[in-house]
User: Fold this.
Amino acid sequence: MVLQKVPITVSFTTTDCRNGAILAVGGEIMSIESIFNKKHGHAVLVVEDEQLICQKAKTALERAGYQVHTAGNGPDAVSKVSTHDEIDLVLMDIQLDHGMNGGEAARKILAVRDLPVVFLSSYADPQMLDCVQGVPAYGHIQKSTGDAVLVASVQSALDLHAARMRQHAEHGRLQRVLSSLGSLFIHLSSSEAAAVIGEALAVVGGFIGADRAYCFEYNFEAGTTSNTHEWCAPGVSAHKDELQGIRLEEIPDWVDAHRRGREIWIANVEALPEGRVRSLLLSQNIGSVLTVPLVADEHCYGFVGLDWTQFHPTCSDTHRILLTSFAHMLSSFHLRETVAQAQRAAHEQVLTVLDSIPAVVYVADMQNYEVLYINSHCREAFGDIEGHTCWKALKVGESGPCEMCVNSRLVDAAGQPNGVHRYEIQNSHNGRWYDCMDRAIQWGDGRVVRMEIAVDITNAVRSREELLKSRQEVRDLLKAKELVLKEAHHRIKNNMAMVQSLLNLQAHSTHNSEAESLLQDAAGRLQSMMLLYDKLYRAEHHAELALDSFLVPLIENSISTYHMTVAPEMRIDISSDVVEASVLTSLGIVVNELMSNSMKHAFDGQDHARIEVSCKLESGSLNLTYRDNGKGIPETVLQDGSENFGLELLNLLAEQLNGTLSYSADGGASYHLRVPV
Assistant:
């Protein structure tokens, strides 16, 4: 049969079945006969807490023929809706008192009955309207609106609600048919496709009352289309065999419409202009025809259609929704099959990649532990273990699944893969160490399985163990050194204590007061060194110490050494800055020397003695300031620098620290030592 290219006149419509919405382009959609009109006037519940406004609305609505109930607050409104079945609409003030606003009241009412709700408000305040967000309202009316607009808005809401209820009833019938169709396609396999599609065409055609229902598939590479499935009502002849290999160039308008996602509705084939399409349709005894494109992954691959042998003047919403839904089901199945084919191809590619990985790779069923796949590297390490139980083939001496099996960690509560689990293990089969990365994946047959990639890290583990051993040896040596250092500090402290005892004994046994004083001074200097060594011995780090933890006890010890009638007032400001032990040794002797000099010579005959000591790190320097309010430094020392061992010792210690020492006798003795650090 040769087809001729002829122009045709068709009416296109674009149908969107989401949320039950129908959009018509060209042509009129006939409304379903009203089955919800009541025999009596509609009843309206006006919910308003301001009596004048409530009465105004009530009067306007009653004049228009409505029955009107009123409520002054939210709880009252909910109660009246629950007890008055005749109420058809609620006119609700948004701002209500008594703890329940209009939004809350509307939600409670809608939980009881499906009624149209129209909100009243004094002005359009966005914040005020927040309380009714999410409430399926049929409109918002300002209270200042005239009576005519109020009545018209109420009637419009009632009409919209009635239309929605009619649509709901029709959709109920439609949903039952769609549900039966959906059950056919849920688990449809390739082998069952032909029979199930034929059965589905019978359901669609029979429900709509068509004479013929069918599927066509486009082959754009060959430039043809063919009838693949067909259902005919009793007494209607089939034409599937005749409709094979039709050239697309013969029906360009149809192809273009379908590729744009548009359906085609021809109400009267007889009215088409003379041409091949008209003769082709009339040869099949077609009076009216409706087709919907088959689109998968945004590409048209065919269409489904309905024929009537007699002139069919209208195409209803139900026709469009049902045929479009059926087309979507077919397209979903087609896409699922296409994806399945692509997955099978991808699966083969994945196996090729896995085989090239230089690591042990195997895949095992997570339920029965059967090894489903091994790569070449795994085969070399463990043999041909495909089809074996993983814990038997990969381990030695196991009586059940491995104790460290990670299967349960690889999937979530819904049994879906949830990430990678990594661990190291020594294999009992060959003694080698492996860095294992396990994850759940979907296998080619749809199962969720465990895939393991295990990299041999035996050499790295051995190197790591040797490194850890070396580190332990170093730690042991450091610990031994630490013990030796502590022992050295302890011995030094003991030896210094012995020398101090000898100096004290010698001082007590001599009858020369000057010699006794010198010996006691030497013992005091030694005491400061002993205190430092004791602190270092107890410290975590023996090479440094905080200033306050050393100098404060040293000062307290110096005070207790000398017996004074009234203890001096001490003003101590010493920071917790950490200083090296070598600096602290000299610094301790300096402080001891200054304290000794003050306690022995500064306060003779004074009622009130005061000593101030400040030591802290400031601007890169260690600053020690010492003052007393005693007699001060002798004038001879200040003027001609006459020999004074104490002052000479202080200068030597300052020089040893690379610091500078300054002193004065203004209102007592004052010393300032600055040491760079």
The first strand starts at residue 11 and ends at 13. Confidence is low (pLDDT under 50) at residues 1-40. The CA atoms of residues 496 and 530 lie 6 Å apart. Residues 458-509 form the longest helix (52 residues).
